[in-house]
């Protein structure tokens, strides 16, 4: 059986109500992230937390050292679980994520967190490109309303579009219930 790791992406205060960049359904997604964390810890599965900070204090959210850039209590790391600081959308870019996974002899990754249409998407595609078997806990991810060229895209539609695209060729899409029940 191959070794799987849980990657928790950007479950940070600014994404929650009263944060600087609130996501639709972040509380529900975070509750499922918490369930996945408990499950991974019970199974002695490696867990890697990703935390995003932008490069300047004038950032729209996740400003360096700000309370909004801190990991939300719902996804707090346990002792010994690495926290990877990133400054780009892709969690692998200019970080030690790949070397951490390789050091643990991980072959499969389970991804959850935020935002569905940005960092979850980028990490999922990169993990697949690096040869990992990827599963995304689709109900442990959150997005927000988007707009392009005058077309408003509700958060639920943005999330569904990205999960559908990732599920087509990059990842196995599973609910938290499916993942913690087996």
Automatic annotation (TrEMBL):
Residues 5-148 form the Isochorismatase-like domain. It comes from the Bacteria. Keywords: Hydrolase. GO terms for molecular function: hydrolase activity. The keyword Hydrolase applies. Signal peptide: none annotated. Gene3D superfamilies: Isochorismatase-like (3.40.50.850). PANTHER family: ISOCHORISMATASE HYDROLASE (PTHR43540:SF1), PEROXYUREIDOACRYLATE/UREIDOACRYLATE AMIDOHYDROLASE-RELATED (PTHR43540). This is Cysteine hydrolase. It comes from Telluria aromaticivorans.
């Amino acid at each position: 059986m191959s070794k799987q790791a849980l990657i928790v992406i950007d479950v940070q205060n600014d994404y929650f109500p009263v944060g600087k960049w609130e996501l639709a359904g972040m509380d529900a997604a975070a509750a499922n992230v918490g369930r996945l964390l408990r499950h991974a810890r019970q199974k002695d599965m490696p867990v890697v937390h990703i935390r995003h900070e932008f490069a300047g204090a004038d950032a729209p959210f996740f400003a360096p050292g700000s309370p909004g850039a801190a990991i939300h209590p719902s996804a707090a790391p346990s002792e010994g679980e690495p926290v990877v600081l990133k400054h780009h959308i892709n969690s692998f870019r200019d970080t030690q994520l790949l070397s951490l996974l390789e050091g643990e002899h991980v072959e499969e990754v389970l991804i959850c967190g935020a935002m569905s249409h940005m960092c979850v998407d980028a990490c999922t595609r990169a993990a697949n490109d690096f040869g990992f078997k990827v599963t995304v806990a689709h109900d442990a991810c959150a997005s927000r309303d988007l707009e392009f060229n005058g077309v408003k895209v509700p958060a639920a539609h943005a999330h569904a579009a990205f999960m559908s695209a990732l599920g087509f060729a990059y990842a196995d899409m599973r609910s938290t219930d499916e993942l913690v029940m087996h």
